[in-house]
Input
Amino acid sequence: MKVFVAGATGRVATVLLQSLVAQGHEVIAGARSPEKIKVSDYITPVKLDLHDTVTHLAQTVKDVAAIYFVAGSRSQDLLQTDAFGAVKMMQVAEMNHIQRFIMLSSAFSLTPEKWDNPALAGLLDYNIAKFFADNYLVNQTQLDYTILQATALVAGEGTHHIALNDASGSKNTIQNVGETLASLLNHDNTIKQVIQMSDGPVAIDTALAAI
Output
């Protein structure tokens, strides 16, 4: 399958690209600095600036079966990247008839009543941006979406085992998140689902199959 990854130079994206290629997919890797992406037989870097118009973006993001949105501004450009940049990519998907859309998001992005938790205090502006982007995806598009809400990201070797939704904990290795994102393509039962994840005891594919 040919897929497009928006935000392909991030930490999670690096694992995602490797995992998608390992599964036999061809990846168009979109980033503001595509020269940072290693070219291979299965990875084609392209310039992607989320400040561009939808019409311009649609000329770059086409002829693929799925879009991943894993771009993030690290709180430097929340409105134009994390919020409206995501919305523009959804609009591109609909314009170019790309039905599958997988979004990396934040734990509790759609439940603002949880944001008064002290553990989330530093993420308030980020969660607000993700709230509007995720709401648009669920309620304003007809895309076959999956929203993966990751709890706090940590470095370290992944275990390839996760916990989902009510069983999820507070931390994710970056590797586990990237691998889980890649595996979502193999599980149509995750379409139209908002899934919270953390590291846990269940193998990734087994956990996703049980959604």
